[in-house]
Amino acid sequence: MNNETLLYNVSFNEDYIFDRTDVKVIFITLYTIVFVCCFFGESFDIFILVYLTIN
Predict the structure, then answer these.
(1) CB-based burial of residue 48 (10 Å sphere; 0-12 exposed, 13-18 middle, 19+ buried)?
(2) What is the pLDDT of residue 39?
(3) What's the gap between Cα 29 and its chain centre?
(4) Where in the chain are the domains?
(5) Around Cβ 18, how many Cβ atoms within 10 Å?
(6) pLDDT above 80 for 3
(7) How far apart are the first and last CA of the chain?
């Protein structure tokens, strides 16, 4: 009786997708866009709240 585990359709030679440069560039770009939009959106909210409390 063999005590083996057979792995079908598993290749250890495939590249990990996050090691690819183009994937890294895409995710860094998307992360930067989200960060900038959130930062300026929150800054705009604070500006409006301060402006409305002064007037």
Answers:
(1) exposed
(2) 98
(3) 9
(4) 21-54
(5) 8
(6) no
(7) 84
Vertex 16 angle, CA 15 and 21, to 5°: 90
2: phi then psi, degrees, rounded to nearest 5: -90, 140
Please enumerate in sequence order all residues whose Cβ is within 8 A of that of 23, keeping only pairs 6 or more positions apart, or say none. 17
Token couple for 53: 């409390």
Sign of the dihedral defined by the CA atoms of residues 6, 8, 13, 16, in that order: negative
C-alpha torsion angle, residues 42, 48, 54, 55 (rounded to 10): -170
Helices (H), 1-55: 21-54
Q: What is the pLDDT of residue 12?
A: 60
